[in-house]
Amino acid sequence: MANSPQARKRARQAVKRREHNISLRSKLRTAIKHVRKAIETGDKSGAQTIFNQTVSTVDSIADKGIIHKNKAARQKSRLSAAIKAMA
């Protein structure tokens, strides 16, 4: 347990930051799942619309440092390729 007042405050802040980061990461995963579900249904225009919204979510979370920028780029690339592969 933290002994100094400063260490106690930092521990409180760490808990708050962790909860916030977890919620953002969950939001990211949900957005990606929505795109994958749209791809499975076969609706290319709908999937593209949802993908465009997801791209902004992925970018904002990567900018905040929740995920690495390369991971964000990889996820966007794979989703885009899956949409393009739809006939």
Structure in words:
It is built from 3 helices and no strands. It starts with a helix and ends with a helix. The model has no long low-confidence stretch (mean pLDDT about 95). It has about 90 residues and is mostly helical. The chain is elongated, with a radius of gyration of 18 Å. The protein has one domain: Up-down Bundle (Methane Monooxygenase Hydroxylase, Chain G, domain 1), CATH 1.20.58. This is Small ribosomal subunit protein bS20. Binds directly to 16S ribosomal RNA. It comes from Nitrosomonas aestuarii.
Please outline what is shown here.
Keywords: Ribonucleoprotein, Ribosomal protein, RNA-binding, rRNA-binding. The protein is built from three helices and no strands.
Helical stretch tally = 3
Q: What is the CA–CA distance across the termini? A: 58 Å
Q: Indicate the CATH class.
A: Mainly Alpha
State the major sheet: none
Structural class: mainly alpha
- Count of strand segments: 0
Identify low-pLDDT runs: none
Radius of gyration: 18 Å
Q: Which fold does the CATH topology refer to? A: Methane Monooxygenase Hydroxylase, Chain G, domain 1
How many domains? The number is 1
Mean of pLDDT: 96
Beta-strand content: under 5%
* The CATH fourth-level homologous superfamily: Ribosomal protein S20
Order of helices and strands: HHH
Inertia-based shape: elongated
Q: Can you give the helix content as a percent range? A: over 70%
The CATH architecture: Up-down Bundle
What's the layout of helices and strands?
Layout: H1 5-41, H2 44-63, H3 69-84
Keywords:
87 residues, mainly alpha, Methane Monooxygenase Hydroxylase, Chain G, domain 1, 3 helices, elongated, small ribosomal subunit rRNA binding
